Amino acid sequence: MPDAFAYCADLVRATDRDRFIATLFAPADRRGALHALYAFNSEIARVHEAVREALPGEVRLQWWRDVIGGERKEARANPVASALLETMARHGLAAERLVALIEARRFDLYDDPMATLIDLETYARDTSSALLGLAARILSGSDAEAFTGPAGIAYAMAGLIRAFPLHAVRRRLYVPVELLERHRAHPHDIFAGRPSAGLAAALAELRDVARHHLDAAREHATALPPTAIAAVLPVALVRPSLDRSARSDPFAPGEIAPWRKQWLIWRAARNPARIAG
Predict the structure, then answer these.
(1) Is 252 exposed, middle or buried (0-12, 13-18, 19+ CB in 10 A)?
(2) pLDDT digits over 6-56, tens only?
(3) Same-domain pairing of 95 and 117
(4) Structural domain of residue 84, as residue ranges?
(5) Residues 101, 173: one domain?
(6) Domain ends where: 110, 130, 160?
(7) Whole-number Å distance between alpha carbons of 37 and 127
(8) In the chain, how many domains are there?
(9) Which of 128, 132, 127 is nearest to 143 (CA)?
């Protein structure tokens, strides 16, 4: 079993560096559980990259649903599945929350655009917010939903804005069609990599929505259990990321340097008031 958790730690270090850095501020006896949760998240978030068609992706996601439901006896041979099942049992993670996270990732398998802002907020809540809440539960026994709900939405939106160029190349639209139509930004221009005033306005509105959710989270920051802080440290990167993208070409967004990310996470760990600041 220690080997399974070590495998998860290596996977998170390679695929989700920001969350891995944040786990260094968690108690040593809880880091393995966080690594298991984040490794599981990496596995299902990357399913769409590993398949060319939706059906094989659906099969992979169904396998994870079966694992969580206890229907895959061979799951113990998979280090991520093995570590996740032990983490669920040890920390009381609800299977329903994990299954909902998997279900939300089905959207990634298809070429359908994100239709409305409400759709995007729901997607972000079921993925990013859920992950923050599950991590908080591992550390504190509480999902701290008043904070993790809006903070997760802001975190997801900032990430999708950073990933906008990659999604455009793949002809995927996570920026809601509702926003694009409101600002007369055309998908064919986006897929051709052509900036426009309409696209800039749509992304600016999306950044404003993300900041609104971040502000909502900040109002509940004082209610965060102190033991849950390490679970939400990556949220400290959201506002700097939004500010940097506002100054950048949408097809070449400015990235925060790795050393600065580590410093922002360290600063937030020292002063939790800065997490959603």
Answers:
(1) exposed
(2) 999 999 999 999 999 999 999 999 999 999 999 999 999 999 888 888 999
(3) no
(4) 1-110
(5) no
(6) 110
(7) 12
(8) 2
(9) 132
Q: Which amino acid is at 12?
A: V
Identity of the amino acid at 114: M
Per-residue pLDDT tens over the stretch 193-244: 999 999 999 999 999 999 999 999 999 998 899 999 999 999 999 999 999 9
56: tokens are: 């094989």
Q: Does 271 lie in the same domain as 186?
A: yes
Buried b (16+ CB within 10 A) or exposed e, 200-237: ebbbebbbebbbebbebbbebbeebeebbbbbbbbbbb
CB 84 within 8 A of CB 135: no
CB 37 within 8 A of CB 134: yes
Query: Same structural domain for residues 68 and 201?
Result: no
Q: For 16-170, where are the alpha helices, taking DSSP H only?
A: 17-23, 28-45, 47-50, 54-68, 79-91, 95-104, 117-124, 130-140, 145-162, 164-169
| Angle subtended at Cα 64 by Cα 61 and Cα 68, rounded to the nearest 5 degrees | 140
| Rounded distance between C-alpha atoms, residue 178 and residue 101, angstroms | 24
Residue 249 pairs in a beta bridge with 252
